[in-house]
Amino acid sequence: MADQHYLVGLDLVGRTVVVVGGGSVAQRRVPRLLAAGARIRLVSPEATAAVEGMADQLDWRRRRYAEGDLDDAWYALAATDDPDVNAAVVDEAQRRRIFCVRADDGDLGSAVTPAVGEHEGLTVGVLSGGEPRRSAAVRTALVEALHSGTIADSAEPAAPGVALVGGGPGDPGLITVRGRRLLSRADVVVTDRLAPQRLLEELPSHVEVIDASKIPYGRAMHQDRINATLIEHARAGKFVVRLKGGDPFVFGRGFEELIACAEAGLPVTVVPGVTSAFAAPAVADVPVSHRGVAHEIVVVSGHVAPDDPASLVDWPALARLRGTLVLMMGVAKVGAFAEILVEHGRPADTPVAVIQDGTLRGQRTVRSTLAEVADAVLREQVRPPAVIVIGAVVALAGLHGVASPPPG
C-alpha cells in the first residue's frame, strides 16, 4: 500500500458503482454517490431503513455477494460486516482492475474514501494516511471556516445585491452557517435590535452598519425608509445584508423588503432563520408539540388587539382549538388575548409560559394560566421581546429533570 494516496475526482455520471453491504457504511456513502449521478448496484440481503428508503433509486440485488456482481462497474465499495466477503469483493475488483474501497480495513483495498464536505459548489476532501478521525476533524474545520468566511472561497468581492438573512432568536450561535458566511462578505449591514448583536463585533472595520431597529411603542425606522436604504446601497455597487431577528418571513416583513428590491431590479438572496416562535420555547424546555398532547401549532401575531378593526385573526376559532398557540409580540395586550380565548371556550386553567429574551443570557420564563397571565406579566415586569406559549405542552416542562443549558 502506498504511503500517500492520490486524491482525484471521479466523474460517475451514468456509470455503475457497486456497493456490497446495506449497513451504516452504505447509508453514509450512497446519498453522495447518487448525488454524483452514479448508477448504484446494491448487493445485500437486507439494508438499514434509510438505505431501503432509497430503493427506488438503486439496482438492489437482495442476496449475498457472488462472483460477477462487479460486471460493468467503474468503482466498488466492500462494506459488509463479513471480512471474508469484503476480501472476495476486493479480489474480484483487483482482477477486473476496478478501484475498490474496503470499509473494514482501508489498507487492504485499492482506494480510500476521503473525509468530504461541501460548500457552495466546492467539494473539500481530506486524506490523512490511515487516520480517519484526523481527516474528519480537518474536513470539518475547513468547511466551517468556509461557511463562516474565515477562509475566503473566492478572490472576487460579493456581487452587488441584497441578502435577507434571518439571524435566529438572538444567540449568535443559532444563525445558519450560510447566513454567517454572507454576513462576513457584506459591505453594508442593515440590522435591527432583535438580530444577534454580537455578530456585528466580528465585522471588518470597513463595513457600514445601519441601525433599523423598531422599538415597541418607541422610535423606529419606517419600513419605507428601510426599503429605500437597501436599494440605495445596492445600487451604489454594495453587497447589502439585511440582518433580521428570527426568520425574515415570520412576522419580520421580509417579503415586503424582497418585493421592494425586486421591483428595483436588484438580485435578492433569502436565507431563512431559526424563528423564536419555536426556539424560545425549546430553550425553556417547552415543546410546542408532543405526541398525544398537541397535534397543532398556531403562531399568531399579537401586535393588534382582538377588537382592533385591523386584526386578521379569528380569535373565537383559535379558542376552540385544543393544540398549542404561540403568541408573538403579545406582551402588552396579553390580558385581552387571554380574555377572548377564555370567553370563547379555552379553559381558564390552560397553562401559559412567557419566555423573555429567549436564548440570551437574560432569558427568563414566567409560568401561569390564561386566567392569571396578565397579572403575572405585570407583577414580574415582563418586557418585549417575549414569546407566549399557551397550551397543555407548557405543563410538560421540567419533566424527568430535563433542563436546557444556559444560553451561550
Tell me briefly what this model is.
The protein has 11 helices and 17 strands. The chain has 408 residues and is an alpha/beta fold. The protein starts with 15 loop residues before the first strand and ends in an 18-residue tail after the last strand.
Quick one: overall form? Answer: globular
Distance between the termini: 47 Å
Q: Count every beta strand, where a strand is a DSSP E run of 2 or more residues.
A: 17
Helix content bin: 25-40%
Strand content bin: 15-25%
CATH topology of the largest domain: Methyltransferase, Cobalt-precorrin-4 Transmethylase, Domain 2
The major pleated sheet works out as: 5 strands, parallel
Name of the CATH homologous superfamily of the largest domain: Tetrapyrrole methylase, C-terminal domain
The CATH architecture of the largest domain can be given as 2-Layer Sandwich
Our count of helices gives 11
Mean pLDDT rating: 91
Helix/strand-derived category reads: alpha/beta
CATH class of the largest domain: Alpha Beta
Q: Major sheet: order of its strands?
A: 3-2-1-4-5
Radius of gyration: 27 Å
> SSE order, as H and E?
EHEHEEHEEEHEHEEHEHEHEHEHEEHE
